[in-house]
Amino acid sequence: xxxxxxxxxxxxxxxxxxxxxxxxxxxxxxxxxxxxxxxxxxxxxxxxxxxxxxxxxxxxxxxxxxxxxxxxxxxxxxxxxxxxxxxxxxxxxxxxxxxxxxxxxxxxxxxxxxxxxxxxxxxxxxxxxxxxxxxxxxxxxxxxxxxxxxxxxxxxxxxxxxxxxxxxxxxxxxxxxxxxxxxxxxxxxxxxxxxxxxxxxxxxxxxxxxxxxxxxxxxxxxxxxxxxxxxxxxxxxxxxxxxxxxxxxxxxxxxxxxxxxxxxxxxxxxxxxxxxxxxxxxxxxxxxxxxxxxxxxxxxxxxxxxxxxxxxxxxxxxxxxxxxxxxxxxxxxxxxxxxxxxxxxxxxxxxxxxxxxxxxxxxxxxxxxxxxxxxxxxxxxxxxxxxxxxxxxxxxxxxxxxxxxxxxxxxxxxxxxxxxxxxxxxxxxxxxxxxxxxxxx
Length: 441
Ligand SMILES: Cc1cc2nc3c(=O)[nH]c(=O)nc-3n(C[C@H](O)[C@H](O)[C@H](O)COP(=O)(O)OP(=O)(O)OC[C@H]3O[C@@H](n4cnc5c(N)ncnc54)[C@H](O)[C@@H]3O)c2cc1C
Prior knowledge:
Distance between the termini: 37 Å
Radius of gyration: 21 Å
Strand content: 15-25%
Largest sheet: 7 strands, antiparallel
CATH topology of the largest domain: Vanillyl-alcohol Oxidase, Chain A, domain 3
Number of domains: 3
Bound molecules: flavin-adenine dinucleotide
Number of strands: 15
Strand order of the largest sheet: 12-9-11-10-14-15-13
Structural class: alpha+beta
Helix content: 25-40%
CATH class of the largest domain: Alpha Beta
CATH architecture of the largest domain: 3-Layer(aba) Sandwich
Order of helices and strands: HEHEEEEHHHEEHEEHEEHEEHEEHHH
Shape: globular
């Protein structure tokens, strides 16, 4: 069957399903195609070129809101070999485009291994790894994209290539941090970690404890062992059944994380005990696969909007500013105002890494809230502006692609020389600009 039969126009049955995105962004591409094989990806890319459409690649649509208008684009969704292949002996996974983290983590766990997944089991593996990959194993292991061994792609002229540090090294460099740069990825191979069990958990306190919790946590982060990676959040817990009853619908402050070394995890828990009486606290050894759900990210599509920044030099003044802007007295309705802990191996350059081999900041700061209707969206936007504005003096002006605002640009995510190198690579592999860049140039 020719690929033309799989190309869906806006009036075709199945188009709405094909353009549906996790973040509920309303995408209206000129055409959409779900490709189930490398051959179909090649044909779809050639079809787009012949029909003078650019190609925007997507898996789950967790970052669909970052796409430019697609009225002259084919939205291509490669869904190929969604069963991950685990090589337990060589400790790596081979994963087809379209696969999410959950099946990878589960398949790896059967061999006593785990992967450098992020906080959501439903995020796409390829998009996450191409954009850097910030994991609860990050401070010990670095960015997840540094663990990528090989990437298989379809180029803008419809050819197939397998790239690694010896084959097409420039493109391999670009694809480890700069997203789906100039090609469509069909499969990816990456290292697994020999961890059947980790120490992890979360503590929840009333929002009134925000300042004490943030100060204590900040102090702990200054000398924290690299085996532990954590996050701090001020949250409005959703009033839904999935959330445990003691914390459901409440305004709370939360610290969660993972330690790959039990005593280091226990030492963190002891430190947190001085903050206040928790509403709920659950820490201890757990199967590593359970860490994929520890952060409690939404797994069903949600109309969320957010804002992100990298921050440095966070101090007691910053603690007060964040609590004032996002704490209990602020009236914030944000689902979360969050700081993710960086440092350790996340902050160290990796000589064998790609364009983003580390993050030169102390924390990723971000806020996320609902945009279910115009009134809710207006309130969320106001809360986001206040919380992120309060972080202004500590923002370093740079961005990390996976946690970048939809209007972020290439020069915010990468140093100037890397931007030039990325543009040259794009010119070499996609001279006509067929592939929609993952971020504004
Ligand atoms: C709830 C939530 C939790 C998250 N947690 C984390 C986290 O803990 N750590 C972290 O680092 N990031 C995290 N992210 C960010 C996430 O990793 C990025 O948004 C990532 O790009 C999502 O990939 P996706 O395939 O799911 O989304 P999509 O929107 O489908 O894809 C995002 C982009 O990836 C590229 N892409 C996807 N598939 C292909 C392909 N086959 N070929 C070429 N390019 C492709 C495209 O540029 C596409 O625009 C989170 C996001 C959300 C919404």
